[in-house]
């Protein structure tokens, strides 16, 4: 990577300042300084970087797209709520140098390098924080201050003993390597060392055969174990001599346990591992509500960044509210509210980016448009642009009709469309003029069908506007143009035609697999309560979308689990609002290559299924599964936000099961007083799961408070199906779903059937 590169830092279309950017010698820190004054403005750590976007993949860079080509532009995205850093390099070559270099440093395959760099950076950072008088040395008083800063309340005698052991020069201060020795003694993992020695004959190393025994007995690795052991030694053993002898040291063993291979999340499920040739209705689909909003529903900001964040998070179903704007240009915003507005053309441009796929075979995007959308407002140029994005339309073919009699209505059926056929495409969900078979067979003379579940004054207004000609055209030519355009846009709606839901019997008699109904969270809950099995059967052949109550003006979310329990595919959430609901969403869709599609269990894809989530005994289940979790220890847990100076957390771990009602449960450990640095619990929690296929497991760390509500520290959520048994680390996430390295939990997982 180049160092001292002159680039433009961009904050808006009119704010572009030149800055020198440089990667520090530690390979973990980047600082930048003003070209004019030479003064260092800011610095950030590589560990704070979540991803790097190439081209015009931010609202700011899109605003300067006509001035600067995409090859010179890139965006550095940080974890948490820190704003993006939008940069314009002097040339495409310089941009690629930085982009590729940053990717090398933040990619998971660089884990051993990152471990070493993060460790070295942490040691340096803690030394600088504790060295109050900046003399390059640290006395015992400064060490005591350091321990408070690191979330440790250690016995003074023990701290002094560690200090004296590290003070090899007997100067009464620590400097250089002495501080490194002190830090290593402070971070010694006794529970890991004990496990290491259980399998090591000499207590100093694991031979290849000893490592194989550990992998088979404890980690339950049963395929290619010897090859895996060799790979782990080559990848995580820091000593070249040990690698040459095919042995693993205690440091290498710890590095393996902290790696992706040692994570609780099965690495085989991090790639696209499920069958992607099923019909669309057989998948849970990551879905957002009012995607363009990044704040509340009434006065919040509308932004392209809402779409970018959702797409990068794996969302595959997005919402676009299109309205008439000034000068005939359509705009996107939450209609009849005070939210800000963004041009429709920018939304089209964003959705047209080819880089939103999270795998080599990106599944389709779905765009939803509620009843407030006015298709007449979309000019032909926009329609052409949208079609160029890859909107999917079928080949013209005559639909097959079921034979009359035997209770079958004469309803045309259409060939099932699969994800494999739809990859790289965009599906439009919305109202449709006429019937789908009219579009395939040729124009019909049926009146426009504009039905949707959101019946009310807005729909009536829309029906009035969408009548032939719509609105008050100034001429018959304009009226004809709008009529043609509305039909063209309607023709883009194929397999996701919005229809009203009037009951399961009505749907079986008259609806088609190509149609979709939208239900409010309240209506969905009533159907779950009154007809759970019928709801599951319905969702085995037709799509259902659930949306938040209109009362959620603060952009809060409902619990998506109860909707997934009956097989609802499109459970739309407010992605901008952190909390339990988005933790569950991220937990479910973190698997399968993070592609946004998760295959439903077989019993939810069967149209004759007997499954009812309210009564798991109603179907022939394979029997309960026992999940046993030993919560062993925690490492370097963060302090609670806005806590008092010197405050140290009292951490506890709560494990929650989210699934069918009978499986819902939670248990927690005792709290450890005044130790957020290396708390040890050693407690065992156990759960019985009747429907493990639908279960999500959430690990939550909280700061215990006996007088008020516990404070959130970190969490990690994953589907039960993705759990890897054995000794595992759980790398915690913040409230908004971003990583907080190096905070983690160390657990042992055992599963019995």
UniProtKB/TrEMBL annotation:
Supply the EC number(s). 3.1.4.11
Per UniProt, residues of the PH domain are: 1-107
Under the heading InterPro entries, the entry gives:
C2_dom, C2_domain_sf, EF-hand-dom_pair, EF_Hand_1_Ca_BS, EF_hand_dom, PH-like_dom_sf, PH_domain, PI-PLC_fam
- Record-linked SUPFAM superfamilies: C2 domain (Calcium/lipid-binding domain, CaLB), EF-hand, PH domain-like, PLC-like phosphodiesterases
CDD domains per UniProt: C2_PLC_like, EFh_PI-PLCdelta4, PH_PLC_delta
What is the membrane topology noted in the UniProt record heading this document? Answer: Peripheral membrane protein
Where is the chain membrane-spanning? none
Q: Which GO terms describe its biological process?
A: intracellular signal transduction; lipid catabolic process
Top-level taxonomic group: Eukaryota
Q: What keywords were assigned to this record?
A: Calcium, Cytoplasm, Endoplasmic reticulum, Hydrolase, Lipid degradation, Lipid metabolism, Membrane, Metal-binding, Nucleus, Repeat, Transducer
Q: Where in the cell is it found?
A: Cytoplasm; Endoplasmic reticulum; Membrane; Nucleus
Q: Where is the PI-PLC Y-box domain?
A: 489-605
Which intervals hold domain EF-hand? 118-153, 154-189
Catalysed reaction(s) here are: a 1,2-diacyl-sn-glycero-3-phospho-(1D-myo-inositol-4,5-bisphosphate) + H2O = 1D-myo-inositol 1,4,5-trisphosphate + a 1,2-diacyl-sn-glycerol + H(+); a 1,2-diacyl-sn-glycero-3-phospho-(1D-myo-inositol) + H2O = 1D-myo-inositol 1-phosphate + a 1,2-diacyl-sn-glycerol + H(+)
GO MF annotations in UniProt? calcium ion binding; phosphatidylinositol-4,5-bisphosphate phospholipase C activity
Q: What is this protein called?
A: Phosphoinositide phospholipase C
